[in-house]
Design a protein that fits this description.
The structure is a homodimer of 199-residue chains. Chain A is of the alpha/beta class. Helix content of chain A is 41%, strand content 13%. In chain A, helix 1 crosses helix 2. At the A-B interface, helix 1, helix 2, helix 3, strand 2 and helix 4 of A face helix 1, helix 2, helix 3, strand 2 and helix 4 of B.
Chain lengths: 199, 199
């Protein structure tokens, strides 16, 4: 009673290696590929290989790009004296969606986490420091995540940068817009009170 | 302020065409592809094209296979006198997981649904009838889904098959194993009472 379609199993297997995709979902997705016209599978396969081949890190800011330097670093109308330091290429996307920030970025590709073996030399901190040496940069905005590791990384970098006479700022903590005070945790609420502004 | 990575957008676009995958999930999956070694994207792309190219319908039972006739139809140790008629190739997988059924299958690839323009001639009913003409088949188990369309299809086929002197059965309705009576809907409960067995 063995019913085994090897190419189907292989496809299910590849889908289930994706984060958050279990066996059942992988099966559902694989069947949906088989139900669609063959062009879809072809285009999907092409998109996969092309994305993986063409996308790499911007040689300046380490964000994702398919060019030599990314569109943000290449854009003369952006403010190259302000660098927003983030953990992950996805964070650049989040900032860009906001459409409020006109400076440039630097992606660390992680946070300092000695327990996981991630020491400062594993991050793109050297690359950040070499960008600062030109003297053009006036402000570094530390936009690492509000976690213990994110905080540690922010203060580590700020200790390196401050002696160079560059202003270092950190994103504000507080209650999220549209949030409900009742459900805010005590740490967030305390930080929100601490950072209150006159209106 | 335009930050556009065309190959990434294309990959996100392909992922979000999958059923149940929204924009955010498609982004997350695409980034995970970029984070993994390039071999993963290559193997994934290969699995996609191969699955779509190699898998087609078994010429006998219309289930999915990468062979000429599927492993079930080809297996002489299975009971070829019992055909279980299902709507969808996925249903064959569900039956095979059970490991209790030793007959063969027939996949209709849909159910009769005049409102959606699915008339009996759009389903693989002709193929089923030609399998019955050999006289080898003793029983047809109608295993379409317990929906209005599934029922209608089951009784349509049973009206065609019964005059040929072939036994037609239908899967039992009842409360699901491990279910809770409290949450069973009235129709299921009524059918379950109707179909009660002596113990």
């Amino acid at each position: 009673m063995n019913y085994n379609i090897i190419p189907l199993n292989e496809l299910i297997n590849q889908f289930s290696r994706l984060p958050g995709i279990g066996k059942k979902t992988a099966e559902r997705l694989s069947f949906s590929i088989l139900e669609q016209p063959p062009e879809y599978a072809e285009n999907f396969a092409k998109a996969l290989t092309e994305a993986r081949e063409k996308i790499h890190f911007c040689k300046v800011c380490q964000a994702l790009t398919d060019l030599d330097t990314c569109q943000i670093c290449d854009n003369p109308s952006r403010d190259h004296s302000t660098i927003c330091v983030v953990e992950d290429p996805k964070d650049v996307m989040a900032f860009e969606r906001m459409r409020e920030y006109s400076g440039v970025y630097h992606v660390l590709h992680g946070v300092i986490s000695p327990l996981d073996g991630i020491t400062p030399d594993k991050l793109r901190i050297k690359e950040l420091m070499s960008r600062l040496s030109s003297g053009e940069v006036k402000e570094i905005i530390m936009a690492t995540n509000p976690t213990v590791e994110g905080e540690a990384t922010a203060s580590y970098i700020s200790r390196l940068v401050k002696p160079m006479g560059i202003k270092v700022t950190r994103l504000a903590y507080g209650i999220p817009v549209g949030g409900d005070l009742e459900y805010a945790d005590e740490f967030t609420l305390a930080r929100s009170l601490e950072g209150r502004n006159e209106i």
